[in-house]
Specification:
This protein is mainly beta. The chain is 0% helix and 47% strand. It has a single domain (8-121), classed as Jelly Rolls (Sandwich). Strand 4 and strand 5 form a beta hairpin. The chain is globular.
């Protein structure tokens, strides 16, 4: 088939499986839309919650688009306010972590898919 239509919210939420259900939702939809080389993920952060970890890539440039709500994103050493319809481009080596404001936040991330192209940073990236 030359196209696929899939509601991103209907894709399995992997956050609870990894113990992050109280922080929000994470719907990784590349397989569901039968993408061969593109990664796509739909994230929901609950009000006043921060992603459980930061991450960066070796090769993949990503663009995150805030769909609803708002909050902040930390990009390396800089914290930026973000709101609905803001697009945030992250070069591969930029470490990033999102935080929702009082309304919560939903956003979609799209970029090339590279197997094992990423590093998770669980502690010490965003200190209050």
């Amino acid at each position: 088939m030359t196209y696929t239509i899939k509601n991103l919210a209907s894709v399995d939420d992997s956050a609870p499986r990894f113990g992050f259900g109280e922080v929000g939702e994470a719907h990784f939809a590349s397989r569901a839309v039968e993408a061969e080389s593109t990664g796509i993920a739909y994230h929901v952060l609950r009000p006043n919650r921060r992603q459980a970890f930061a991450h960066r890539h070796d090769e993949a440039e990503e663009i995150a688009v805030v769909i609803s709500g708002g909050g902040r994103v930390k990009l390396d050493d800089e914290v930026c306010d973000i709101r609905a319809l803001d697009a945030i481009r992250c070069a591969p080596n930029v470490t990033r972590q999102f935080e929702a404001g009082p309304e919560g936040m939903s956003y979609v991330v799209i970029g090339p898919h590279h197997d094992r192209d990423g590093e998770l940073i669980h502690e010490g990236f965003w200190e209050d």
